[in-house]
Amino acid sequence: MHTDTGRQAKFDQLAGAYGTDLYRYALWICGNDALAKDLVQETFLRAWKALDNLNDPKAAKSWLITILRREFARTFERKVPKFTDVDKVVVVEEREPEPDDRMEIQLLRQGILKLAPRYREPLLMQVVLGYSCEEISAALGIGKSAVMTQLFRAREQLKLSLQKDGITGNVHELY
Question: What is the distance between the alpha carbons of residues 159 and 156, in angstroms, rounded to a whole number?
Fold first, then answer.
């Protein structure tokens, strides 16, 4: 394209053919109408500047989409996150457990400590650390079915030890 008229015609053809598709794609990736319009506008601006580099008109759509995706990525490079002064952050105090709650927690801890290590370890790994059966299996070097059996038996033994005196503790998260 040596003439400005030919270059303008080529650009107008690209904008007319792919403008709607670019806007739809931009809206899909960013979810914001105004940002999508800005992205399309910036894409066409960059396309205008590099129009002479487009040798194959069949590749125009993918070329424009690549420009748009890169422009979308650049929007995050320019954004500076807001920082909050740590001294100004208000941390809500957790409520102090009631005496009944403290007693239940103490009974539960004692019950867990009385479990055999082969039952206590997987139970603590699951309940306290949030490990899945696969992760416990890998950490302890035993099969997944063995882990599931040990977890079941740990819960059953804990339930029995807590119900010995006729008082059922709050162990709902263990069942």
Answer: 5
